[in-house]
Structure formats: C-alpha cells, structure tokens
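Dear support,

I submitted the protein below through the web form. The confirmation email said the job was done, but the results page showed an empty box. After a refresh the structure appeared. I'm attaching both so you can tell me whether what I see now is the final result or a partial one.
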Amino acid sequence: MNKKHKDDAEKKKEKISIRDSFTTSWRLIRLVWKYNKFLFTISLLTILIPTALGGVNLYIIRQLTNFIVAVYSHHTPIFPTLYFYLGVLLVIPVITGLTFSLQSFVRTLMWIKTPDIIQQIYTQSVSQLDQQTLENSEFKSIMHKASNSIYGRPQQLIDNIGMVLQSIFGGAIYLGFLARANVWIVVILLLVAIPEFIRQTKQSQQFYNVWSWRAPIRKRIGYLTDLLIDYRQIKEIKLYNLREKFLMQLQTFRKEFYEDNKKLAKENIVYIILSRFASTFTSWGIDAYVVFQVIYRNYTLGDLQLYTLSVSNFQGSLSSLFSSFASIYEQSQYIRDVFLVIDTKPAIIDSPTAIPLNNKGKAPEIKFEHVTFAYPDSKKNILNDFSLTIESGQKVAFVGENGAGKSTVIKLLARLYEPSSGTITIDNHPLNEIKLNDWREKLGILFQDYGTYHATIKENIHYGDINREYRDAEITHAARDSGASSMITELPDKFDQMLGKTFEGGIELSGGQWQKVALAKSFYRNADVLILDEPTAAIDAKAEAEIFDKVQRLSKNKTVLIISHRFSTVRHADIIYVLDKGKIIESGNHEQLMKKESKYAELFTLQAKGYQ
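What the results page shows now:
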C-alpha cells in the first residue's frame, strides 16, 4: 500500500458517525450527572429560565405596542393594564440578571469540577494498565491525544449541550410565534439553515482530522517544549549549544501545524460568506412580507415587532443550534479518545482460575521453559527458546552485553509482560495461573530505571511495602543495609528530608544517593525473591562491596537474582548465566566459567584490565 492510500485509510478510520458522537456526549452527561447532580441541574435551569423569559419579554412588548396603539385610537388609557406590562418588563431583566450571575458562578465551578472528575477517572484507569499495554505505539498515540483533551474539552462539550438545549427551547418559543403568522416562514428558515448545519459539521470533522492526523507532530512539539524548559537537560543543551537547533525545529513543526489549519480555514471562507448572504436575504424577505401584511391590516403593529424579532431570534437560535451541534460533533471526537483510554483494560490480569500463593517466607523454584519474547511493536525476539531453572534460595547472576535479554528475563518474571511463547512456572504452577498481586508481593526488585519519588526519605523507603505498619526501626535498618545511613545523617531533616525539587524544602540527590535510597526500599520489602538489576551502577566500588556483602548475609533463605556489568558483583553468585542474543551460552560459578576460557572469561579479563 503506497503512502497516500495508507494515509487515506488512516483518515477514514479516524472518522466517527454522528451517532457515535451523540453516544460519547450522552456518556459524558451521565458521568457528570453521576458525580455532580446539583451543579448540573442548576446549570440547566440557569440556561432555560432566561430563554423562557426572553420569549415572555417579546410577547409583552407586542401586547404593550398594541395597547399603546389602542390608547391613541380611543384616547382611553387603562392604567392597571399599563402598570402590569411595565411591571413585567421590570421583573424580567431583574430575574434574568440574577440568573445570569448564578449561571456564571455555577459555570466557574463546573469548569473546575468536570476536568477534575475526568482526570481522576483517567488517572485511575491508566495507572492500572501494564507496561505491555502502555508501550503499544497505537495506544501511546491515543493516550497522547487524550491527555491533551482532558482539560477544557469535556466542559466545552457540556457547555455546547447546554447551548443546544437553550437553542431548541428558544427556537420552539419563536417557532410558535412564527407559526401563528405563517407556517411557510418556518419551513423556509429551516431549509436555508440545513446547508449551514452540514457545512459546520464537515468543518468540525476536518479540523479534528488535522489535529488527529498530526499527532506525531504535536508529540514532537510537546517533547521539544519540555526539553527546552527541563532543568535536568539545560546544562547539556547549553554546553552543546543545542538551544537554537531545538527552537528552529519547534518553529518548523508549529508552522506546519498552522499551515494545515490555515488551508482548511481558507477552503471554508467561501461557504461561510454564501451562508451569511442566504441568511440575510431570507430574513429580509420575511420582514418585507410581514411589513406588507401590516400595511394591508392583516397584522397589528405589535405583530410587526413580534414576528420580525422572532425571525431574527429564530435564525439566531437555529444558527446557535447548528453551531453547537457541529461543536458537539467536534468535541466528542476529542473526548472519545479519553474514553478509549479509560475503557482500555490491562493486557495482563488474573485468570478466572488464578490460584493464591500462601507460602509467604519461602523462596519458590522458578522455571523458564522454552520462552520466546519480543517487545510490543517489534518483530525482533529478545529471548529465543529460553530455558532456565532457579532453585529455591539460589543466588543467580546474569551477565552479557547490552541487548542480550538480561533485564527482559526480570520483566517477564515480574509479569510486566507475557511471553510470546513458552511457559514460566513457580513451584510447578504456571505463572499466569497465579494471582498477580500474591506473586508480586514475593518480589523485591530494584530496576535500572528505579523510581525517584519526591517525598521524604522515610516515605521513599516505606513505599517498598506500604501494607506493613510503619516502624522507624525497620526504616532505619533498611537504610543501614543499603549503605544510605551515612548520607541520611548528614541531611538537615534526616529521614524527614524531602527529596526532589518539586516541593518546598526538597533537595536533589546524586545518582548514587538516589540508588541507595531505592536499594533501601527493596531491602525494606523483605521479599522472598530479591532482584537487583544493575543495583550499583551509580555507586563506588567500595560501597558496592559492602552492599553485596550485606546481600549475601541478609538473604540466606531468599532467592537473589543479580544483573550487573561489574564482574566483582556477580562473581560470588551460586551460578552465573551468560546471555547472548536471548539465549544462555554459558553457565556455572565464577571458577568454572573462568576455566572454560570462553565468553565470560573474555569479558571478565577485559574488565579486570581496566582496573590495572
């Protein structure tokens, strides 16, 4: 399929029907109603009441005009009737003004509340997804669009729905007035308005398509913007003089996005002008008709005011109605992306027959049997027919060059991904048949890209096992085991020190200091299986030796899995597996592997020379 046809197919896939648009809108209404019944009800009332009062006001003006004509004709003013009309004309704007003030107040609250509701549901939904889902490129594209639609779009849609109700209600009032004059007036107005509705709906689809199809460009714009204001990147950007280059790229992408929208705006300007002319001439023709009817005494002067103003107001209501419908169609497409993310279910979940793990405190036997795996959107296998048995309480190390599959083994074991084929078993039970939370509670993992939480040190460590009752002694013990104690005692607030620069009083740690805090979190978990993925990459050799001495002593009955490029770290493992291109090419303890004089011995010797 060539690029043009592929793009056309993608564009066609993006389009949604008007029915889908209203389904999305109705879902949003129900969601807002569920969490915000009172404000939603008041909001609707403040829209409908002024509209009804506008119709009453117009009718009273008609009556007052006819009343004045009657007074001039008969010279007999009836003051009670006059006072009644004047009183109504005073009460209507007073009530309308109060209602608009209330409407402004409620709308402000709705603009705060609605995005908050959507953001909370969105965050809850995304946070339950697994890495396998989040790394899918198609899903990432949808999520990027959705994240840009949470703030503003939902309440804009609610506002437009309110405008539709207001337009329908107001239009029905003016329709009733005009139908009394001549039903053909209504038919003509509707026929003229329909093409405008079609044009606005089509325009909304076009502008959404530009926004949607240009998602990659918008992602680049967002990335470059964040890059240029990120304090962690600024030193390198200045050092390599990258600022101007990134600014030029940003300007190019923004210009391309602008030109797409400008092109569409120019295409639509002709239709807008023609639509305005059609509306103007229709209004003029109906006004002329009413004037002649007054001249021929078929209508009163009050009718002249009522009908001409009704024509104007009815056209305004229709225009607002169609414009709001078109806007609803547009906004619902953005919000559909939000709901697509919310509706996405994790790829990795408990099976209906998942069994619990009740052997807390016992390290299990772990087996990989003919496991093959490729990451989402990749055709390249990271693991190929990978088999391995890890005995209970065994200390295992994985070594190999980058991309050999070491970290992938850990991710599959943590069930962050599912194997493409093959089986992982825990004590002879398939891993995907064990309750996910039960299994993960048995794991204590320090990943290469460990979390750095902007919270206090003691909170960071306690995150290792939030289900355990907080005790200072255990937090202190975990910090001591990780080698973080000496660093913590030098901080102003000790274990209460806020980390990171996000919150007031926070400090930024070095890479090695952060790594020690993350390691303390893993130790605090006290899991049956301790997994350390490059745990000492940012720590000096002396601190590394101390930490692994403690790991050996603290994990007598635990299974320990270590991934490291430092051979001094792995040499004391019970068994070392050398991985290459997703397969185990060597295994044994340090002495055995050195005697083989193969890949492990070669890598160990090369690294040892670096220290000589």
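Response: this is the final, complete result; the empty box was a page-load delay. Residues 243-295 form the longest helix (53 residues).
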